Amino acid sequence: MPVPRNLPSTERRDRVTLRTIADTAGVHVSTVSRILNNQLGGSQHTASPETVDRVLAVATDLRYTPNQSARSLRTRRSSHIGVLVPTLTDIVLATIYEGIEEAAERHGYSTYVTNSLDDPARRERQTATMLARNPDAMIFGDAEAHGDFLERQSRKGVPFCLVSRRVEGFLSATTDDYRGGQLAAEHLLELGLVQAALLSGKPFASTAIDRTAGFVDTFRDAGHPIPDHLILYGPFDTAGGREAMQSILSTGVTLDAVFATNDFAAIGAMGALRDAGLVAGADVAVIGYNDVPLSEAIPMPLTTVHSAHNRMGQEAVELIVKLLNGEQPTSVLLPPTLVVRESTLGVATARAAAFRRA
Amino acid sequence: MPVPRNLPSTERRDRVTLRTIADTAGVHVSTVSRILNNQLGGSQHTASPETVDRVLAVATDLRYTPNQSARSLRTRRSSHIGVLVPTLTDIVLATIYEGIEEAAERHGYSTYVTNSLDDPARRERQTATMLARNPDAMIFGDAEAHGDFLERQSRKGVPFCLVSRRVEGFLSATTDDYRGGQLAAEHLLELGLVQAALLSGKPFASTAIDRTAGFVDTFRDAGHPIPDHLILYGPFDTAGGREAMQSILSTGVTLDAVFATNDFAAIGAMGALRDAGLVAGADVAVIGYNDVPLSEAIPMPLTTVHSAHNRMGQEAVELIVKLLNGEQPTSVLLPPTLVVRESTLGVATARAAAFRRA
DNA sequence: AGACTAAGCGCAATCGTTTGGCGAAGTCAA
DNA sequence: TTGACTTCGCCAAACGATTGCGCTTAGTCT
Which of A5, A79, A203, B199 sits 20 to 30 Å CA-CA off A29? Predict the structure, then answer.
């Protein structure tokens, strides 16, 4: 193998600073600074058009890039936004983060992200680390419904907003998870399915809480209340969803439908149904949440509730930008939509067929 | 809804700087600086034990956190590492990034990440943005086998290393993908399966190239060369894997096995087999790559090649740290392992049964 | 012609840290 | 007592950018 070529260079990279530009353009450093910054909103301190052109030419010629450290030392603004999410290995959060990044870049901010794994101690540590980097603002994707973390955070003077999960009284960009739960429930009820089990999520996350409430309320109002023992909480991934479903099935209940507050749990549940000799989509309708790419690509495409995750991330940044501009934005609540696929469509048909046969 | 409480605070946050500490401890600012930094490697400039204690006490008392901007303005070191990946929504890259983050934090570096989407123009832009933030080093997870990007990058004086994908002549932390391809092939050959199709990945990524080569070479050497028309390239996710498999099946070939260079493509392929009335794992063995969590949780658990993604990320950072310490590290190549699950185990048995019946 | 205005630009302080250099005091030996 | 060293800590100059203030000069008004 040849010698790697990407070693640190010893040669002193001749840095181009305001001074360099000032000297070659024959003006003072402060003039250059003003020209480079006011470019758009030329208000107070202007320079003659010729000077502006000359300086701009020199700047682009020398490929000037401002030293962010110097700039933020002086201005006390960093143009950084710190982002905290439960984990980036969850495609939903990763997608939200992509949206955040896109919007941040558009507004001239750069972001850095870390994951709290929903562990309070870790969250404290990560937040402290982020604050040490002097972000102009922060975005929390891992807010918990209870606890005083956000209270304390809001006393630190760094503005922030929430994304994905909301908490009453704090600015947030989320989707209407209660409505999402309703959509799922209405769909099942329209199909005539009334015996439902529910795989909820983390009990401290508004996403799980709201989706569950929307679903449960709708079933109750329709006259088909869901008994408590058919509602399971937990951090469900595919394996977790499978186990949860198994434990429900092991009680011997008869089910028409299962609603899981995330697609991976739903996929796991489908596995458990299969293990039990039931056909997901024919014997039991399965409905998930999030509409991850996988859910339409699996052998039994999954009915699910779609949310605009990328968009949500972008909205969070828009809120932050408004906040930083001194405006008083209000929380954003995006509408979810139902995506109907095979995993819920076969059951009614199968029932009808069975009925006819009988 | 109550008024959001996370608005920017107007109150001037009284910053505690070296000066604050110096004043309350009754020493000079430079003394404080030295004490806080030399703490470990007290070499030239020492302070008396009493002074050290006093200053340290004051510092922790006032909860001093150094101003990174000022520090990096002065030292020309940012303690930042820039990371570029194809996309964070791929769980493999997200896991690698988590490893990067862990190791970076351990070494006192912080990271920021963006995704290039494997788009050359975007890669250039993102890299420029990152460089403007003066990283001490960079990590590229989206290296392409050809092109002069890395060549040009190495002239910019910012050290870097590659992760996930390797390129001859550049420092990298990867797994032995050629070996991984071999493992997959050997497994199938041992099961007596000789008619294989191959869903390769992006033709410019060393991961796809090497895995493919390892697999193809092994089959060739065993006397069962794989015809070109059974090797498909493309950026395959689940849907893509499904389509690719369909197109192969539509040619009417008989297959013993399919090897996909990523698990999602493999899952898609299983779907296509099912559509064609074939049972994955019984009629056709399916083997994937990466061992993502989903692969063991699906109804037909997937045989796959496991790589230590988190570890790989950490190794990349270790390389960077060595580089920054002036050492000349050599590339890291982690060994993959084969994880055998049901998707390859039923075929031989089914054959034997069929044979007995005949 | 004198006074006043405003455009155009330079001056210098400042943000918080780091670090080479230097001075004062203490230690030790001769 | 003196000279040679240490030890401990202060001084001040950077790093690169921003910004309030004030100095020119040219143009306008009376």
Answer: A79
